[in-house]
Design a protein that fits this description.
The structure holds two protein chains of two kinds.
Chain A lengths: L12 H6 L6 H14 L6 E5 L5 E12 L5 E10 L1 H38 L1 H31 L5 H28 L8 E3 L1 H11 L1 H6 L3 E6 L6 E3 L1 H18 L7 E8 L3 E7 L26 H11 L3 E6 L5 E8 L7
Parallel strand pairs in A: 5-7
Antiparallel strand pairs in A: 1-2, 2-3, 4-6, 7-8, 8-10, 9-10
Chain B lengths: L6 E5 L3 H13 L4 E4 L2 H6 L7 E6 L7 H9 L6 E5 L4 H9 L4 E4 L4 H33 L3 H11 L4 H8 L3 H14 L5 H11 L6 H8 L1
Parallel strand pairs in B: 1-2, 1-3, 3-4, 4-5
Helix pairs in contact in B: 6-8, 6-9, 7-8, 7-10
Classes of the chains: A alpha+beta, B alpha/beta.
């Protein structure tokens, strides 16, 4: 192990020390001297730098041999090669680090996805709103019936009738609370306005929805106007609008032969405009699609575009749809460049 | 107060809905108990009373439809589903799997009470059938091995003489066995014994009669 010739007999302590890696020599000597002084066992780990240039990791285990007078006679010990063990440990540490890094990346991606879906799936949002309102409504109706039955009993059970009537009031207020929370969500004054580069936002949406776009066999083309200025708007809300328009477009082209989706940004004298053009089924009544509970989708609640309109109008902008032969539809929205116009 | 002769279980994760549905059932004079989850329901000991399970389809711990499938293998009370939104595929699946009804919230008191009453009635019948069968089995188990041999022969319509010959015993002895069978099975007539035997799946080879005649 030490690249010594067994034929030349037992090596001296000095010649053994010579083989120790120069960097580890002081620490090793220190540890051994310390053990000798205290007459105790030692078990340090160090590296050998062999004449061939090879570095090996070893562990030396030395046990003191004492005579009857408790005097140190000698140390008996072994030197073990732990190079492989060290390498394995190092690899384990490295792979653990790598795993941690991968987990971080995955976590980040999930966060982003969660963020995206949090603001993206308006259809889901409206379904959950419906559920939130329906639950207290069910409770109100059932309690109302129960209250009537208690009153109708002979003799009437006034105490229980009052108790259930109170629950009707309580659940009615709970339903109103749900409604006001939803209103707050889309309140006109609510947007947290920041300087917003609409082109950057479109690129973000393209990245966020890349899987969905490719998964549906859609070819997305973006045409970003170089002269589009920064505006003051709520990035999350505007992102929500774009995601919703893109998702609608993807769904509209589900059965289409050619699935080309164009997202374009441009400017007019006073506004920044975004167009989302699909080659889907088109629109029978472009005016009507923004009305609540109007949906061309079988599973749609008809809330997505209504919410989009409320967001855009809260920013002082406009949103509209045009049907074109070809076939398909274009959804466009405009946002004022001068934010003071919005208020 | 007399002890209840039925029980309605309500499982819904929404506390106000759970409370309201339970209250509505109580106001109609029904004995209702509520649970916030399927796990809670399963943990609770359930009395052996005719009953009904009013189950919300969308539970946080277990999907109501999956739970229904799990229960299908056991002798359980009939299920009435309630759901927040009329989901047709789900309701079809539930009804096909034996659910009694699928009510969309908010439902009227009549709709719920009628179906719950029907469910309890159905369960009452099922329980009675199970109890009857257990009783008939117990009676059959009380027969001696020889009496158990005599039973199918009576049911097959053999005359005492023929049955005695079949078993190689005297007619008198057979008559004693026969009256013991009738008494232990609590059958007032041969026709009734035939009916009881049919529920027990006692095999009655039709060949018996003819073979007896030939002797």
């Amino acid at each position: 192990m030490h690249e010594m010739d067994p034929a030349r007999g037992a090596p001296s302590f000095e010649s053994a020390i010579e083989r120790v890696h120069p960097q580890d020599r002081p620490v090793l000597l220190e540890a051994v001297n310390e053990a000798v002084r205290a007459k105790v066992a030692f078990q340090p780990e160090y590296r050998l730098l062999l004449p061939s240039g090879i570095v090996r990791s070893v562990r030396i285990i030395g046990h003191p041999v004492l005579n009857a007078a408790d005097e140190l006679v000698e140390y008996i010990g072994t030197v073990m090669d732990v190079t492989e063990q060290k390498r394995a440990e190092h690899e384990l540490r490295t792979s653990e680090l790598e795993r941690e890094r991968a987990e971080h990346a995955l976590h980040d991606a999930r966060e982003k996805l969660a963020q995206a879906s949090k603001f993206a799936s308006l259809a889901e949002l409206s379904a959950s709103i419906a559920h939130e309102i329906n639950q207290p409504l069910q409770a109100i109706v059932a309690n109302g019936y129960a209250s009537l039955r208690w009153l109708d009993a002979s003799p009437p059970n006034i105490g229980k009738a009052i108790r259930t009537a109170q629950r009707v009031v309580r659940d009615g207020n709970a339903a109103a609370e749900v409604v006001s929370r939803i209103r707050a969500l889309f309140k006109r004054a609510a947007p947290a306005k920041i300087d917003l580069d609409i082109n950057k936002l479109i690129v973000q949406v393209r990245t966020l929805m890349a899987d969905e776009i490719q998964g549906n066999g859609v070819l997305l083309e973006t045409e970003l106007g170089a002269d589009v200025p920064t505006i003051t708007a709520d990035a999350v809300q505007i992102q929500q609008v774009i995601v919703n328009l893109v998702r609608n477009a993807i769904e509209a082209m589900a059965g289409a032969q050619r699935k080309r989706l164009q997202v374009r940004s441009r400017r007019s004298a006073t506004h920044v405009l975004v167009d989302v053009r699909d080659q889907g089924t088109g629109l029978v009544d472009p005016e009507k699609v923004f009305e609540p509970f109007v949906s061309t989708k079988e599973t749609g609640m008809g809330m997505g575009l209504t919410i989009c309109r409320s967001i855009i109008e809260a920013h002082g902008g406009n949103i509209w749809a045009t049907h074109h032969e070809g076939p398909g539809a274009t959804f466009s929205f405009s946002l004022p460049i001068d934010a003071s116009e919005a208020m | 107060m007399t002890p209840p002769d039925h029980i309605v279980y309500v499982i819904d994760d929404d506390p106000s809905v759970r409370e309201a549905v339970t209250e509505l059932l109580s106001s109609a004079g029904l004995n209702a108990v509520a649970f916030g989850s399927v796990a809670e329901y399963l943990m609770q000991p359930r009395p052996d009373l005719p009953g009904c399970l009013v189950l919300d389809v969308n539970m946080p711990d277990v999907n109501g439809l999956d739970f229904q499938e799990q229960l299908a293998a056991t002798a359980h009370v009939p299920i009435v589903f309630i759901t927040g939104h009329g989901d047709i595929p789900k309701s079809v699946r539930a009804i096909k799997a034996g659910a009694l009804d699928f009510l969309t919230k908010p439902f009227s008191d009549e709709a719920l009470l009628q179906v719950v009453a029907a469910a309890i009635e159905q369960d009452r019948k099922a329980l009675r059938e199970r109890a009857d069968l257990a009783q008939i089995r117990a009676r059959h188990a009380s027969l001696t091995p020889r009496e158990r041999e005599v039973l199918p022969l009576i049911v097959a319509g053999l005359l005492n003489k023929q049955a005695a010959a079949e078993l190689g015993i005297s007619e008198i002895t057979l008559q004693i066995h026969r009256s013991n069978v009738m008494r232990k099975m609590e059958a007032g007539s041969v026709a009734e014994l035939v009916r009881l035997a049919a529920r027990l799946d006692v095999s009655i080879p039709p060949a018996h009669g003819r073979r007896g005649m030939r002797r």
